[in-house]
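Forgive a beginner's question, but might I ask you for the amino acids of a protein and the tokens describing how it folds?
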Amino acid sequence: MPENAGYSFLHRTRLLLVFILIALPFEAALVLLIPLGLFFYAANNLYTILGILAVAAVAGQAAGLLSDYLVSLAQGRMLGELRLAMYDRLQRLSLTYCEKERGASLPHAFAEDLGPVQDALTAAVSRGALPLARAILGTAAIFWLDWRAGLAGLLFWPWILLAPAVGAALASRARPTAKNDDRDLLGIVRETLSALPAMRVYAMEQTSAAGFGKRNETVARSSVGQVFQKALAVRFADAGAFFIQLVLFAVTMALAAEDHMSVSVFAAIQILGYGIGISLGALAGYLPVLGKAREAWGRIRELLAAPLAVADSPEARVLPALRSEIGLSDLTFSYNGETNRIAGLTARIPRGSYVAFVGASGSGKSTLLKLIMRLYDPSSGRITIDGHDLRSVTQASLRGRMGIVLQEKSLFRASVRDNIRVGRPDASAEVVTTAARKVGLHDEILKLPQGYDSIVDTGAGSDTSSGVRFSAGGQQRLALARALLREPEILLLDEIGSSLDATEEFALNAILQDLRKGRTVIASTHRLSTTAGADHIFVLDKGAIIEQGNHFELLALDGMYAWLWRKQAGFSFREDGAYMDVDAERLKTFPILEDLDDAALSELAPYFATETFQPGREIVRQNDAGDKFYILARGKVEVWRTEEQSGHATEKAVLQDGDFFGEIAPLTGFPRTATVRALTVCTCLSLSRGHFVRILDRFPELKRRVAEIAVQRLRESSKSAQV
């Protein structure tokens, strides 16, 4: 990016700025009319002077009105160009940079940094350039009237103009402390809200209020210092403006007393001195606004200079239609330049085949799809389509041959019709309807208040009072319709079933079986039930292919794939779809149940209850009573542990289909040692401690064995993610 690219909006408004600079002296000269009128009145006719003053005043006011209009026009254009430049840059940023800065500088630049820049631009003339021009013209007029008075007036210019800088320096020293104190106070409020029931039960209100009061006193003291330092700077500038008038009055009074200055000159200088003081005071008040704008502009410049995503080479060609295969040759890729997410991966995907990349969370399967889409370029190795390296073809032609369905939400606040035709804006209503029919969404859309014209409520932004919301399955089908609308040769599916319940996933799989005909389908998933029918399955671990083959070949290998299959198998939904069962064989795979015989396991299985948790819901919370053991039949969760002394929260693990947690609870009844939060819709089978204990009471030897396991688990709990 050129160094001056961030200032292009100034270049495009240069003509307006020239007119503003031309009008500025005429408006600023108004400050001279009265004092110079007094001076010339001593030697000229009163009516002549009044006429000249009237004409000059009208001209000056007209110039001022023109300047106001031009300033508002220039400001609007400059801010519009700046927002457009920021948004354009945002769309082309490196995905790594966006993911890193998503919760920090990027939203801040749009939400908060544009405000100070707008304030500075709005007041640039009225509180900046115009007062400066008036002060300069006034001082020049005093020099013309009497050079000695002019020198006296200049003495306090540095005083006034340096006062804001001194105040800003003092305030900046106190600002970090004040921010930390405010953050601590906010932390107490959040902690109180989260622990309010416990506080009331244990009558902690007075103790908590006392702690809050002490912290509040600290915040109040730091606030007093900060406010006083700002006020001191303003007071300092005001004092300088007053002393200009005082010194001018003293000097001119002395000169007049010695008959070195006429009364008209004396009066003119007093008025000019007053005007200079007012102008410099206004300018001093604008300088802090300008300082905040400079800080904000620095952050905006960081956005405008941030690294771009992959770019087309100057020699990039249009990608021809897929005729043979997609090749992955010795691929290596790292997000941070240190840890490889893809490591030496080589694979071949024939045209018209259905291939799946499977593995645990973090194995690199979604990253691989992003490389095929060329959202990133590999660190080494290459991806080819019929021998064409993706880096040698245009991104538009590559993605134009692809239909892509991501696991992330990708709906927009627009009509259902416009959401479907995102990738093909010129698609007719008939084509949109056909795509919706193919994914089984047409009838559901017709039931909406305005059908295809209904506005989709994405839940983002402030205007969420209207619009329709789709279920997770509906969102995925809408995204699939959008992909099919492009009639793609290659269909990429990234974990599209991860957020669906069993019924929605079954329906989606049935749709995919019909849609894969005549297309090359590449899917990434951790849920093996969706890929059993794939032509070829690649099993990933730490970014490398460790197994490959079809479903039955991989089961026969009895390796990672077979282990994942067994972990996810053994669960079945009942006819109503609301409840799930687990069989005895599946229960036997859990360490705390492996010593139970088949009869005991069969007796225990019906006691498992089905529970469903929405994304963001805490399934268990650290330090809560441990009364259940959970099997995660479907979904993905994150495990967090908060250190008691430091209060620092650390992510311990991500669990998904077939994993289990909370096994210490039925063994001991002890409080939870970590927090488990749902990342997707999660279906769990839970077993209460009471049911488990009753089974143990019937098997004394097993009870002794479980007690030993409990002791072992408790010893490991401080180092593991078990809860």
Remarks:
- The radius of gyration is 36 Å.
- Residues 35 and 268 are 4 Å apart (CA to CA).
- Residues 418-469 form one domain.
